[in-house]
Amino acid sequence: MTEIKEIIQELIKFRNERDWEQFHNPKDLALAINIEASELLELFLWKNADEADKEKVKEELADVFAFAFLLANKYKIDVKEIVLEKIKKNGEKYPVAKAKGTAKKYDEL
Amino acid sequence: MTEIKEIIQELIKFRNERDWEQFHNPKDLALAINIEASELLELFLWKNADEADKEKVKEELADVFAFAFLLANKYKIDVKEIVLEKIKKNGEKYPVAKAKGTAKKYDEL
Amino acid sequence: MTEIKEIIQELIKFRNERDWEQFHNPKDLALAINIEASELLELFLWKNADEADKEKVKEELADVFAFAFLLANKYKIDVKEIVLEKIKKNGEKYPVAKAKGTAKKYDEL
Amino acid sequence: MTEIKEIIQELIKFRNERDWEQFHNPKDLALAINIEASELLELFLWKNADEADKEKVKEELADVFAFAFLLANKYKIDVKEIVLEKIKKNGEKYPVAKAKGTAKKYDEL
User: Fold this and answer.
1) Which of B11, B70, C66, C77 could form a disulfide with C72 if both were Cys (CB 3.0 to 4.6 A apart)?
2) Residue from B46, B63, B71, B107 whose CB has the most chain C CBs within 10 Å, to mutate
3) Cβ contacts (< 8 Å) between A28 and chain B: which residues?
């Protein structure tokens, strides 16, 4: 079994033991990802870029991943496949010759 | 090499070809995760829980994962390890006997 | 009529002309606030604190306010009243003697 | 003095008593708006659209408004003006004849 499948298996075991699948519709999972992402963001609020507490980052980032994996699972999405596809797509939007060394959005390049 | 390391390797290759590491400090990566999570959320806005367009979900979820993996990599965080640790921790906050079948937060159980 | 009531009146006129009240339940309005707040945040991504484009900030901030006013209206909430009450409450959480000059959260003071 | 100016005056008084202006750069204020918007969103998580606790909505919505007003003030932005301008602009993007009764985005109309 791949690493990501193993993680998802553990998340589903945890969820099912608590009978929580009934709450985990795609929309609320998207809300949950946002809420956890925002708790992660709060660790950087009023701070310089590298002043967040790493142990807390681990916890909040874990929550982001947990709900992101659960949403992927809900749609039977293969995480590796969609990320690699997006990299390919972004390669077209951000060709090296134009995008190198600049943080501009593709529509401003 | 594990699946997640492979994904991160591809993300870093893409980033380095464009010389973007200079922009990818932890704080802005946390912003990026939030921005992508919110674009994912928008696919559900004004809709029922299961009415989002799956192809668009794939793209936005891929972006969430991409920046989440890059932030993990920035801190040398092992994704599998932190998710499994968080599951364990949540097992204590949400014991089955109390949490089964309810969506209440741990401080309301 | 107060300034805020005037703004809300215009927002409702716009909404009703389009028959959009049916979509504006409290939960989706909360989603909309988050989505607009995130578009505002994107104007600062990969940038120094003061490098956002002011004209774009105006537009995205206007969207945040628009949905925040609509949610306030949905619950018959008086904006001035709740903000002044929150200031009072925060005054207790963040007494001047403890909070002066520090960005720490109240539970770390 | 208008209602909004009064609110902002109180927010600034609170901020200055604590010497917090040093932390309130535009980027971190945008982060703060997102974090508060997300705490508001959490009140709706795993719930039906109208099941949030109104008293908690008041508190979190107050926080969203507080930071949104502070950001407006930072840029010397007139809140009423930008919202009315955005309504006008949205009127062009969403003409009544096309947008009535549908929640589609303007680029799908």
Assistant:
1) C77
2) B46
3) 49
Partner-chain residue, chosen from D34, D46, D103, that has the shortest CB–CB distance to B103: D46
Q: What is the 3-state secondary structure (H, E, C) of chain B?
A: CCHHHHHHHHHHHHHHHCCCHHHCCHHHHHHHHHHHHHHHHHCCCCCCCCCCCHHHHHHHHHHHHHHHHHHHHHCCCCHHHHHHHHHHHHHHHCCHHHHCCCCCCHHHC
- CA gap D46, B99 in Å, rounded: 14
- Note whether D33 and C64 are within 8 A (CB): yes
Cβ(C34)–Cβ(C42) below 8 Å: no
Cβ–Cβ of C11/D61 closer than 8 Å? Answer: no
Q: How far apart are the first and last CA of chain A?
A: 42
Looking at chain A, the whole-number percentage of residues with pLDDT higher than 90 is 95
How many angstroms separate the CA of residue B89 from the nearest CA in chain A? 10
pTM of the model: 0.97
Q: B35 CB near a chain D CB, below 8 Å?
A: no
Q: What is the pLDDT of residue B1?
A: 87
The predicted-structure confidence for B13-46, as pLDDT tens digits, reads as follows 999 999 999 999 999 999 999 999 999 999 999 9
* C-alpha to C-alpha distance for B71 and A75, rounded to whole angstroms: 24
> How confident is the model at residue C1, as a pLDDT?
87
Q: Which of C49, C87, C89 has the CB atom closest to D25's CB atom? A: C49
Low-confidence residues of chain D: pLDDT under 70: none
Q: Alpha-carbon distance A32 to B37, whole Å?
A: 10
**Looking at residue A28, what is its pLDDT?**
98
ipTM of the complex: 0.97
Please tell me the distance from the alpha carbon of residue A31 to that of residue B42, in angstroms, as a whole number: 10
Beta strands, E only, chain A: none
Q: What is the CA radius of gyration of chain D?
A: 17
Task: Find all residues with CB under 8 Å of B39, minimum gap 6, and list them.
Answer: B60, B63, C38
Alpha-carbon gap: C108 to the closest alpha carbon of chain D (Å): 16
Provide the chain A residues 52-71 that lie in CB contact (below 8 A) with chain B: 52, 54, 57-59, 61-66, 68-69, 71
SS (H, E, C) D9-73: HHHHHHHHHCCCHHHCCHHHHHHHHHHHHHHHHHCCCCCCCCCCCHHHHHHHHHHHHHHHHHHHH
Q: Which chains touch A (3 or more CB pairs under 8 A)?
A: B, C, D
